[in-house]
Design a protein that fits this description.
The chain has 86 residues and is of the alpha+beta class. The chain has one domain: Arc Repressor Mutant, subunit A (Orthogonal Bundle), CATH 1.10.10.10. The chain is built from 4 helices and 3 strands; from the N terminus they run αβααββα. The protein has a 3-stranded antiparallel β-sheet with strand order 1-3-2.
């Protein structure tokens, strides 16, 4: 777990990638992390329950979802970046 955040390293990495991307398709995020979209779906659901990420339907591609940080996720991002930078 990433120190006192309640997040696993994989979850923190996911938040970091989404934070830098701003808004990213599930498929693209899965490729960056190196997992299947099925595996990523479970991870994103857990981060949604923690109110750190949100899934939104893609405006132009009805099959796709965009992943974005919530305001709470944005507040968490600096501590994640600081931890990873050490």
């Amino acid at each position: 777990m990433v120190r006192d955040s309640g997040l696993t390293t994989a979850q923190a990495h996911t938040i970091q990638i989404v934070g830098h991307a701003g808004s990213i398709k599930m498929k693209d995020l899965a490729e960056k992390i190196g997992v299947t979209t099925g595996t990523l779906t479970v991870a994103v659901e857990r981060l949604e329950k923690k109110n750190l990420l949100v899934r939104k339907p893609h405006e132009k591609d009805r099959r796709a979802y965009l992943i974005e940080l919530t305001p709470e996720g944005e507040n968490t991002l600096p501590s994640i970046i600081s931890f990873i930078s050490k």
